[in-house]
Design a protein that fits this description.
With 503 residues, the protein is an alpha/beta fold. Helices cover 33% and strands 21% of the residues. α9 (249-256) crosses α14 (443-455). It is globular, with a radius of gyration of 22 Å. The termini are far apart. The mean pLDDT is 92.
């Protein structure tokens, strides 16, 4: 009987189940979107029970499409939207509140208060992150302080925290009936609560945040032969399968792109945009506004670290043009609309809807469109929206070069937006380096599959994964240097207009 690996990719806008074979090819894929809940400006939430229901549905659908029966799946890997924060009752499985999404900015006051004495880099030496609304720690603190009965439940040992990986692994392996309560080092490194050196929760930081240690899951390697639990026969897999791979979505894409060498990097174009550079076993603390994070840890091997540049709004800007302005009916129409014009018409779109992430870390910024004239039409809006993604990526690469002294010779790309050929060509033009898309563009799910497969010996080592990686298309830069720099300087000027909007 053929055997496969299943990966669950729990993303910001949807959840997918993908089945992979030994060559890393997709055998089947099922996907379902979930609601985006906006209780007030700056707040973004998800219903965790809806996501768990969707997850069960798509697992069954993916197995059915592939014709896979009991025994066909040998391991399950999880990848997830990072930082999205959930607190639930471990005895009942009922959330105390909706999951607070990584984009949410309600914890600004908490972060500002914690930064009063020593600034936003108060914990950076230990955790690699600035104090920002982006991360899980401030969100846990907000829930403890604002949601009735949670503080007492946490003291009693009933209320537990997890990002979406922990939630799904717990549910898949039994939930209230002895479900595995774990996370991996990559997800833990996004909470502001884990020491990058020890790879354990930091007692001093927990005390500062006033978070009981009993709330937190056990930190595990990203790929581990000691399985954290098995799926249940009465669950969506209808079989007992080891769950043994777990990676935050951007680290999963790093693994899926086979970036196992120091200096190798990738950029994922999804709801946001995330550029990661492998720095090996060395922890490099950024002086240019980047994050230091765990890239992956396989079994007992040393942890591999990465520098990361995070942009909050890229694909989400296309969704905004679709849902809020009605410029397009489907996200795929953005390229066609952008091609109706030859350039951006002189406008620049800075999508600082929830502030700016790397390299600025400015929660006071808000979105702006500059350069408007009577000449501008909706085609220019579409083109400027796509160009914003490429410009923000250029800023991240410039920052990485300053921190690491490594200049990428090519940029490996993945995620939903890489099907947009206009964007990929402009990205190559504005960077001045080739942009390379692999044959399997959805490398996030592939990375989770690789982590699980390595744990059970489905793949022998990372060399097999490197062999699997194949180029689909390369875009070469075509723009001359003076034009490139002219556009980029105008972009930087536009960014300055977005700052200091919130007093």
């Amino acid at each position: 009987m053929p055997q496969y690996i299943a990966a669950i990719d729990q993303g910001t806008t949807s959840t997918r189940c993908m089945i992979f074979d030994k060559s890393g090819h997709v055998i089947s894929l099922a996907q379902k979107e979930h609601r985006q809940i906006y209780p007030q400006p700056g707040w973004v939430e998800h219903d965790p029970l809806e996501i768990w229901g969707n997850t069960q549905e798509i697992i069954k659908k993916a197995l059915f499409q592939a014709g896979i029966k009991t025994g066909g799946i040998v391991a399950v890997g999880i990848t997830n939207q990072r930082e999205t924060t959930l607190v639930w009752n471990k005895n009942t499985g009922q959330p105390y509140y909706n999951a607070i999404v990584w984009q949410d900015t309600r914890t600004k006051d908490i972060c500002d208060q914690l930064a009063l004495q020593e600034g936003i880099d108060r914990f950076r030496e230990k955790v690699g992150l600035p104090l920002a609304t982006y991360f899980s720690g401030p969100k846990i603190k907000w829930i403890l302080e604002n949601i009735k009965d949670v503080r007492q439940a946490a003291k009693n040992g009933d209320a537990v925290f997890g990002n979406m990986d922990t939630w799904l692994i717990w549910q898949l392996t039994g939930g209230p009936k002895d479900g595995a309560f774990v996370t991996d080092v990559t997800n833990a490194s996004r909470t502001m609560l884990m020491d990058l050196h020890t790879l354990q929760w930091d007692e001093g930081i927990l005390k500062t945040f006033d978070i009981p240690p009993s709330m937190l899951p056990t930190i595990m390697p990203s790929s581990d032969t000691r399985t954290w639990g098995t799926t249940k026969r009465n669950g969506p897999f209808s079989d007992e399968i080891p769950v043994c791979g777990d990676l935050g979505d951007q680290q999963a894409a790093l693994v899926g792109q086979a970036c196992f060498g120091i200096g190798e990097g990738k950029n994922t174009y999804g709801t946001g945009c995330f550029l990661l550079l492998n720095t090996g076993s060395q922890i490099i603390h950024s002086k240019s506004g980047l994050l230091t994070t765990v890239g992956y840890k396989f079994g007992d091997s040393k942890a591999v670290y990465a520098l990361e540049g995070s942009v909050a709004i890229t694909g989400a800007l296309v969704q905004w043009l679709r849902d809020n302005l009605g410029l397009i009916s489907h996200s795929s129409e953005i390229e066609t609309l952008a091609k109706t014009v030859s350039d951006n018409g002189g406008i620049y779109f800075v999508p600082a809807f929830s502030g700016l992430f790397a390299p600025y870390w400015r929660s006071d910024a808000r979105g702006v469109i500059v350069g408007l004239t009577r000449f501008v039409n909706k085609g220019h809006f579409a083109r400027a929206a796509l160009e914003a993604t490429a410009f923000q990526t250029r800023e991240l690469l410039d920052a990485m070069k300053k921190d690491s002294n490594v200049s990428l010779k090519t940029l490996k790309v993945d995620g939903g937006m890489v099907v947009n050929e206009l964007l990929m060509q402009f990205q190559a033009d504005i960077l001045g380096v080739p942009v390379v898309r692999p044959k399997v563009a959805e490398t996030t799910a592939l990375g989770a599959a690789y982590a699980a497969g390595l744990a059970v010996g489905y793949w022998g080592d990372t060399h097999e994964l490197v062999v699997n990686w194949q180029i689909d298309k390369t875009w070469q830069p075509q723009m001359d240097a003076s034009q490139r720099e002219g556009f980029y300087q105008q972009w930087l000027k536009a960014v300055q207009r977005s700052l200091n909007w919130i007093e």
